[in-house]
Design goal:
- By secondary structure, this protein is an alpha/beta fold.
- It has 2 domains: 87-216 and 376-451, Periplasmic binding protein-like II (D-Maltodextrin-Binding Protein, domain 2, 3-Layer(aba) Sandwich); 220-371 and 480-542, D-Maltodextrin-Binding Protein, domain 2.
- The chain has 20 helices and 20 strands.
- Strands 10-13-9-14 form a 4-stranded mixed sheet.
- The protein is globular, with a radius of gyration of 23 Å.
- The protein starts with a strand and ends in an 11-residue tail after the last helix.
- It comes from Paenarthrobacter aurescens (strain TC1).
- This is Lipoprotein lplA.
- Keywords: Lipoprotein.
């Protein structure tokens, strides 16, 4: 039995989806939480010298990326090149991370893990939390309180870990001397991480670890090409035109519907058409206004309610087979976490094309926006140690951050050829039966604590790779980044998820007709009083002085 694998060889399940929602993600930098902003953390972080960026040139992609965020693209797996000259480890290293895939067998029962350790030159031992129950934050808190810390611990950006700044100062090693400016060049794979990724790991003017990049792009609508071709294509000149197309495609008697019933995701797409900000807008006086407080958000809620009233959403909001329905055409479109996700449909419908919707003006006048995503899934700091140990850990993360297509990338993600994976007729890796058993959970855990920049890779579907790259270029024309990315709000870490859920529940009630639009104002007032205003204060104190004014 074989199993084909995607670029990273692992699943981050709902985590990246949550990061892509933009409105709840909390960065982990600039101000360290609590009172750190008032003590100068924001100013220190704004002036820190980020690691020098030096692009990895050992491989030439088929489609080049760029500094604006366009991802490099590959049509096939390249011939691997070596990026690390010597094994990084001298002994045992311990770590804490999380897996978003089925848990792999432990080290002593896992040949894939043992072979990786042989290449590393020592023993990498990991505590791996599963994405169930109280999840990673509870495990993290337990380990942190024990005072018996592993050598490194992954810090996520949006799972509610509070007091990040004081925690880092008390327990972890300041890596600024090892990574700031040209110092990072000693670790070439870390130097190949882009500056925007590194901002995540800056807290109180210090660099605390290597970031874990994810796609820089945010959510997009993906549509079944053949279905939308029936109404002139998956694009529109206005919100009303899009709704008319959706209504034409919806035929309940034939079990055909235009849109998946993920109302908050649909609202996110609609607010882009109305030109709403990406979570927070920087005003001319350098204050912040939240998405929820804008007329554009109100207009988006009203229009999404209009879409619901028109019956264009699939009626079962708890359905778990929407991706399959988009693939077979019974649902015409679905919101996914980024443009790269188009590859997920190919396993279900290889002969079908899928389109990525570019934001358009809601009324033909307002300029639409495209919300870029958070761009990383956190960073991995090291507990305080002597210099030799710190450099060993940096060498390890350098190995584990090796770029796509390198020898080290293949070892980390696929293992040994002939044992953990084979090469199929198209020249792409396919896991063996033992590789399918031993690798996925560990690979997910490794990639959640260390990763290179992402690439576009759709093995066997060159046209998809070209198309995704072209659509990314179009999305970048409207791109807007959340100005608080790379900033930390302790209030958001503590109550952000709770108060956002309260507001979203009311919004869903409005969209589905169970509440009136007038109730939105009171819901926003509650959001502000129970934490939103305090989050604003913390983000304003840590605001990047170079953050552009929205609609300025």
């Amino acid at each position: 039995m074989t199993s084909t694998t995607s670029q990273a060889g692992f699943s981050r399940r709902g985590f990246l989806g949550l990061a892509g929602l933009a409105v709840t993600a909390a960065g982990l930098s600039a101000c360290g939480g609590g009172g750190a902003a008032s003590s100068g953390g924001a100013a220190a972080s704004a002036s820190v010298k980020l690691p020098t960026y030096k692009e990895f040139t050992g491989l030439t992609p088929d489609i080049a990326g760029n500094a604006k965020g366009l991802q490099a693209g590959y049509f096939k797996l390249p011939t691997a090149v070596q990026s690390v000259k010597t094994p990084p480890l001298k002994g045992k290293v311990t770590g804490l991370t999380e897996t978003f895939d089925t848990m792999s067998p432990g080290l002593h029962d896992n040949p894939f893990w043992q072979r990786l350790n042989a290449k590393l030159g020592g023993d990498l031992e990991l505590q791996i939390a599963e994405d169930i129950g109280d999840g990673y934050p509870a495990k993290f808190a337990t380990v942190l309180a024990s005072n018996d810390l592993p050598d490194m611990m992954w810090v996520p950006p949006n799972q509610g870990i509070p007091n990040v700044g004081p925690m880092l100062e008390a327990k972890f090693q300041d890596l600024t001397p090892y990574l700031s400016g040209d110092a990072v060049l000693e670790y070439p794979n870390l130097a190949a991480l882009k500056p925007d990724s590194w901002k995540t790991a800056v807290v109180n003017g210090k660099i605390w670890g290597a970031p874990i990049p994810s796609t820089p792009f945010g959510q997009v609508y993906v549509g079944n090409h053949d279905v939308w071709a029936q109404v002139g294509g998956f694009e529109a000149g206005s919100a009303d035109e899009f709704l008319e197309k959706a209504k034409e495609l919806t035929r309940p008697g034939d079990q055909k519907y235009a849109l998946e019933p993920a109302y908050i995701n649909a609202l996110h797409m609609v607010t882009e058409w109305f030109g709403a900000p990406n979570s927070w807008a920087v005003n001319k006086d350098r204050t912040l206004t939240h998405l929820y407080e804008t007329d554009e958000y109100m207009a988006g809620v009203e229009f999404t309610a209009k879409m619901f009233a028109a019956g264009v959403f699939y009626p079962d909001s708890k359905a778990t087979d929407i991706r399959s329905r988009v693939a077979n055409g019974s649902v015409a479109a679905q919101v996914v976490s980024g443009p790269h996700d188009i590859r997920g449909y190919r396993a279900l419908a290889k002969g079908t094309q899928f389109d990525i919707l570019i934001p358009f003006s809601a009324d033909g006048k307002v300029k639409p926006v495209y919300d870029m995503g958070y761009g990383t899934v956190g960073f991995t700091p090291f507990k305080k140690a002597e210099e030799g140990k710190i450099r060993e850990l940096l060498s390890l993360i350098n190995y584990l951050s090796a770029p796509f297509g390198t020898v080290e990338y293949m070892q980390k993600n696929f293992g040994e050829l002939g044992q953990d994976y084979t090469i199929d007729a198209s020249g792409n890796p396919a896991r063996t039966e033992t590789g399918t058993t031993n690798a996925p959970g560990l690979v997910s855990a490794l990639n959640i604590m260390s990763s290179p920049e992402n690439v576009i890779f759709n093995p066997g579907f060159d046209d998809d790779t070209r198309y995704v790259s072209q659509q990314e270029e179009k999305l970048l024309e409207f791109a807007w980044r959340n100005p608080t990315n790379g900033s930390y709000s302790d209030t958001n870490a503590k109550v952000g998820a709770k108060i956002t859920k309260q507001l979203r529940d009311k919004v869903v009630d409005i969209i589905t007709g169970r509440a009136k639009i007038d109730e939105l104002k009171d819901a926003v007032k509650r959001w502000k009083s129970e934490g939103g205003d305090k989050m604003r204060d913390e983000y304003q104190a840590a605001l990047d002085p170079n953050a552009p004014v929205f609609r300025g």
